[in-house]
Amino acid sequence: MSSALRRQQDAWTYAIIGGLVAAPLVVAHNLYTGLGSELSLNGVFVGGLVAGFLAARGSGDADRAAAGAGVLGGVPALAWMLPDLFVVALDGDGTWWFTVAEAVIAVVFVGLALTIAVVAGVLGGVVGKWFASVVRRRTATHG
């Protein structure tokens, strides 16, 4: 197996771990605060941080792992708000073209929300990668 393929597989392994950290945090935060249809991605940042840290310490691509954790952690946030979004978008009050326009806007919003989740995960991954370098330097200095 080539090293690039192995590195990519490792990145997805760390992304799954980061996503498994992020998803319950997103759900717990939304349940605790009662956000309803708002999008909170604090847990996605933490999941990206974990994925970036693990990937930087291991053999994976930290940025790819953090982006994957962002996608996996952002799915529960989308599932949390999608029912409200599509009830409004497909309400049917108006002409047919207005309903189509609302549906298109809803789909664009889902893509935008996933993009924001990826950015939150990557930002967490940058912090995690930095933290891994700090830990690596301290370990090398203090033996």
Low-confidence stretches: none
**Domain unit count:** 1
Radius of gyration: 18 Å
Spatial shape: elongated
Termini separation comes to: 33 Å
Roughly what percent helix? over 70%
Structural class: mainly alpha
Beta-strand content estimate: under 5%
Biggest sheet overview: none
- Element order, helices and strands? HHHH
- Mean pLDDT across every amino acid position: 85
Per DSSP E runs of 2 or more residues, the count of β-strands stands at 0
Number of helices: 4
Topology:
Blueprint lengths: L2 H31 L8 H16 L4 H28 L6 H47 L1
Care to give the gist of this entry?
The chain is mainly α.
Structure description:
Helix 1 runs antiparallel to helix 2. The protein has four helices and no strands. The chain has 143 residues and is an all-alpha fold. The two termini are 33 Å apart. The chain has one domain.
Keywords:
143 residues; mainly alpha; 4 helices; 85% helix; elongated
